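Q: Here's a chain of 357 amino acids. Please give me its 3D structure as tokens.
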Amino acid sequence: MRPTEEQKELRSAVRASLARHEGAAAWLPLTEQIGVAGLAVPEEYGGAGCGAREVHVVMEELGRKLSPVPYLGSAVLAVQALLASGDTRACAQLLPGLAEGRTVGALAWAEHGSWDPAAVRAGAARGLGGTWRLGGTKEFVLHGTEADVLLVAARAGAGVSLFQVPVDGAGLRREAVVTMDQTRAQARIVLDGAEGRLIGEEGDGGRVLRHVLDLACTALAAEQAGAAERCLELTVAYAKERRQFGRPIGSFQALKHRLADAYVLVESARSAALGAAFAAAAGSSELPRCAAVAKSACSEAFSAVAGETIQLHGGIGITWEHDAHRYFKRAHGSAQLFGPPAWHRGRLAEELGLTAA
């Protein structure tokens, strides 16, 4: 299915805004002028009531620019966790600010390098007056140090549950983490008796996180496809202008083959990412399979194409001044985010009934 006129206009607007505004400064115009933060938020909570295909468009464009704005962590993870929880009171209280971009949300659930909801070990104990106290450590929390709304997955008596933890409350420590990819802010969240408010039903957090994981992988796959496409564009342009032995290096057969292989990877990644976006938009039962395919395929495609970008640029490709290293770092960082390709292939095999009994 071809993109709608509205989706074409959204892409054009986001690309133009990112061209005018660099780095984190892009967040304000993206949210105030285009309304990207509220695209997937229902109209009743102040959003645009759009879906995964519009999120796909935004994520592709953010990937092309390696934009550091908190869209993935806030407008995808936090928003979708609240919606999936079914907690209308929490949604009414928190979603309007997230939709406008006035507040930034973060979802903390990964522990010990695992994004599997079953691996959550942080604990939650019910205290006096219906309050909860949380303990444990969360890793890879996107934009965790700047978030105004912090959602935390912890294991209560009935199972994994979702809680809102005040960012300025006692018993909470947020630590910025130095990562290889400096365009994606991450944090470690340490909970030591931090007070939390239950979001949704106790014990329902596993279901919420599994759904959010599929949507997160779908969105990230779009970002990876967009970034891989931009890597190929940069490399093709360089191959046309760089000359050796009196001719453009792109005219050499060996380079043509490598660029053709990169093109196949980019187009395959785009197809996988779009397939997942369509499944998410339709609310299809195939979403877990499509998301696993997209995350695995797009992670490996982006890593391969980013590697070719460095190699085919030659010496300039390994300098700090050129963008090639930034795409390379984002490729390898995003391949591990929400679980590495091999883990998602395992998820796919389980979904297809191919795992050993």
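Q: Can you summarize the key feature?
A: The two ends are 39 Å apart (CA to CA).
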